[in-house]
Amino acid sequence: MKMKGIINMKIELLGGCKKEELEKRIQNVAAAGKLSRFPGNVIEVLDSCDDYESNLKLVKRIIKMGHKSIIEHDYLVFAFCDTTPIVEQTLIGYRLTSFTVKSRREVDFRTVGFYIPEFRNENGEIHEQNDELKEEYGKHMKMLFNTYADIVDKDINVEDARFILPYCYHDNFIMGVNARELETMIIALRNGKLSKIPDLKEVGNELYKIVKENVPYLVPNLKKQEENLSTGFEYLESMEKRPDIKIVEKTNMISYTPDADDVVLESSIMYHYQCSRDEAKEILKNIVKKDKDAKEKMMSEIMHKSERRELEQVSFSFQIPISLAILTHLTRHRMHALLVPEFLPMWDLKNYITPESIKAKANDIYEEAVKKNIEIMERFKSLGVYEGDLVYFYLGNQMLNVITTMTARNLQWVCRMRCCNKAQWQIRYVAKDMAKQVKEVSPLIGKWLGSTCVTDRYCGEGRECCGLIDKLLEMSN
């Protein structure tokens, strides 16, 4: 197998870089800052911001006062070339960003190449055996990619083969972000605990270089930031020793809004009739007296509205066991409160999953590669390699526990996407588990959680439809 050479990552700002584009972007931000205190309509205020230097000075002064909402009107789109999935997963954690990522389900990754860090010692200085460590690391990563290729060659789809890929492979994606979120991101990557991981710090530095030329009003604040490596868990760790990591067996609902069905229905009545909750309860009782199926009919209307704001009044929290390979399938849903464990301190590499297709056709080479990966990581650790440089030994099969809270509206959307037979199998199991557990405590909401073919007898996949909709329609007739 031929591997690409080791390529340095590249980050490029897509558009907004030319002089006239930059001036227009700053004009928009300045107008947003000027609007609230100056006479005239928004177009007149915008026209009055006709001097670049004055606009830049105004924006800097306003954000220095702490009024940063104005810079949310400056939106930037970046291309990330040959970074790592560690970068991707970290940045996707910023909820106010937008992403398009190269699919690992559809693309063969055997020749994408991988990232090699400069290995450091426990003091953060270049390790005395850095050159030897890099050579051994490179050979090991090529072995893992060869194993991936061998698995694919055994007619196992790339969707399952990717579980053996190390988390240092070259990753490519596009990110859209407003300037306020970008500022937060750069500070965390360059000066916060994320800077312990080399490619994350490298990304922060590259973004800072771009900002200096293209988002000049952010520079003063970014310059004065001091290093803050606090994890936010110092007190907890001082009081209780970290236990062994145990991956939960299945998705578990850990909390939920009591009487969620009634809360949604009563919210709908209060919202529409502008009445108190007591009145809404009474109205709901009266409707049910007139029609025993009233609650189900009302919930059906709510679940099929375009806004569905009533569904945001209730929530469900879950602890979910999931692999690194599939984590993005959950993280990319922007509007839920997701807690993903940080890459440091290191997790237990022995907590991993093996796809059934690999167990059937390539289990020996898969297990051998996993075992070797753990051995090499432990060897590097015993040599005093800085923990932040060991994260690239994570494989896609690494299991972790995440926690999330979703409103019923968001949960409906996730289930529509992830309960589909075309969804990746692990995230499909998770979504179906969530839907099942919600149905047990909120049967009316739960009735409309699932793929659209099941809940609405509709499929939007066109030619790529799995065929289940035809069977369901036939059963209905």
Strand adjacency order, main sheet: 1-2-4-3
Strand content: 5-15%
* Rg: 26 Å
Q: Helix/strand-derived class?
A: alpha+beta
Q: What do the pLDDT scores average to?
A: 94
What is the overall silhouette?
Answer: globular
Major sheet summary line: 4 strands, antiparallel
Q: Give the SSE order as H and E letters.
A: EHHHEHEHHEHHHHEHHHEHEHHEHHHHH
Question: Got a strand count?
Answer: 8
| First and last CA, distance | 54 Å
Low-confidence stretches: 1-7
Helix content: 40-55%
Number of alpha- plus pi-helical segments: 21
List its salient traits:
477 residues; alpha+beta; 4-stranded antiparallel sheet; 21 helices; 8 strands; 49% helix; disordered N terminus
Describe the secondary structure blueprint for this structure.
Layout: E1 10-13, H1 19-35, H2 42-48, H3 52-64, E2 75-83, H4 85-92, E3 97-101, H5 130-153, H6 158-161, E4 171-178, H7 179-191, H8 198-214, H9 219-223, H10 234-239, E5 252-256, H11 260-273, H12 277-290, H13 294-303, E6 315-323, H14 324-331, E7 337-339, H15 356-361, H16 363-382, E8 399-407, H17 408-418, H18 425-441, H19 443-447, H20 452-455, H21 468-476
Antiparallel strand pairs: 1-2, 2-4, 3-4, 5-6, 6-8, 7-8
